[in-house]
Amino acid sequence: MKVIDLDSWSRKRLYTHFKALKDPYFGVVIPFDVTKAYEFSKRNSISFFAKYLHDCMKAINAVDNFRYRIIDDKVIDFEVIHASATIARADNTYGFSFIDYSDDLTVFIQNYNAEKERIQNSEDLYPPVNGQDCIHCSAIPWFEFVGHKEPSSGHSQSIPELAFSKVKNDNGMLVMNVSVHVNHALVDGYHAGLFAERFQFYLNT
Fold first, then answer.
1. CB atoms < 10 A from the CB of 192, how many?
2. What CA–CA distance (Å, rounded) separates 169 from 51?
3. For the domain that residue 94 is a member of, what is the CATH number?
4. Of 25, 112, 120, 122, whose CB has the highest number of CB atoms within 10 Å?
5. Rounded to whole angstroms, how far apart are CA atoms 145 and 177?
6. Of 178, 165, 173, 95, which Cα lies nearest the Cα of 130?
7. pLDDT at 156
8. How far apart are CA 64 and CA 152, in angstroms?
9. Residues of the chain with pLDDT under 50
10. SS3 184
């Protein structure tokens, strides 16, 4: 974890401008080709959700600005970002997880499975370990969306929020729309583009 020197940061004026807004978030919906990721997960008998979430987290951690958080008027680079995903229960409610990130897919899946078991065997809404060194994300596999809005706790929040739509078959290619909401004080469209590029790369790998 390190503190960004605002005085030497090239985005200082942009940061100051957007941080002062009542709602500094912007959101985009980006389509991703998940064909190879889906085939990989089925071929190896692993969770498709865990596979693409891992690819997403690799991309998140590869783009500096997606690791930045605003804490006590300071911009902090957490250097490693984890996944706080909603995980469903049998009664169609859910709990919030905190899945420790690992670059190793096998380790990440083990961490995911441990959180899944914890949530499905408890009534807890929040994980026992939590923090701002994460992204908030949800799978919404019941329908395809082309627009999406996340609830917000206020303008000081700076954790990226993602949602994954139902996968559709487009002439043999499997496409999943992903909603990305980020604080514009920290992230611009350029950085969202970098994230999209890296996410697609990992999905194909």
1. 20
2. 19
3. 3.30.559.10
4. 112
5. 7
6. 95
7. 57
8. 23
9. none
10. coil
Quick one: how far is CA 37 from the chain centroid?
A: 17
Q: In this structure, what token pair is assigned to residue 83? A: 């996944």
**What is the spatial distance between Cα 107 and Cα 91, in angstroms, rounded to a whole number?**
28
Count of the separate structural domains present in the chain: 1
Q: Please report how many Cα atoms fall inside a 13 Å half-sphere around the Cα of residue 29, on the Cβ side.
A: 14
Name the 3-class secondary structure at 140. Answer: strand
Q: Which residues pair with 69 in a beta bridge?
A: 76
Average pLDDT, the chain: 96
Q: CA 104: distance to chain centroid?
A: 17
Cα separation of 78 and 58, whole Å?
A: 14
pLDDT tens digits, one per residue of 40-97: 999 999 999 999 999 999 999 999 999 999 999 999 999 999 999 999 999 999 999 9
Domain span including residue 161: 2-203
